[in-house]
Fold Hemagglutinin.
Amino acid sequence: MPQSDLRQAYEAAVAALGDEVAAMLADGASEEQAARLAVARRNLLKQQWRDHTPPEVLARIEARSLAQYGHVLGPTVEQLRAAGKSWREILRSAAKPGGGPGHW
């Protein structure tokens, strides 16, 4: 799969997390529960898509995440909360793809 198609598929999968989060909240989950699950699912998506990422690109992505967050998959829920993010903000960011080719 070309890298641009790979990125588009990843972004669509991340955006779909928004629907999952909305359904969880409608079913009575707390914002904290939904945020924790959304971050876990986002990290799973990151790993799945990174498995298809060219090694030289993956090395740049992971080096940046490691330098910025101390984790190759990005910030933890605890880091986001410590940075002052609300559960609602974490929910929104988990369902919003960031970066892109120029970001690496």
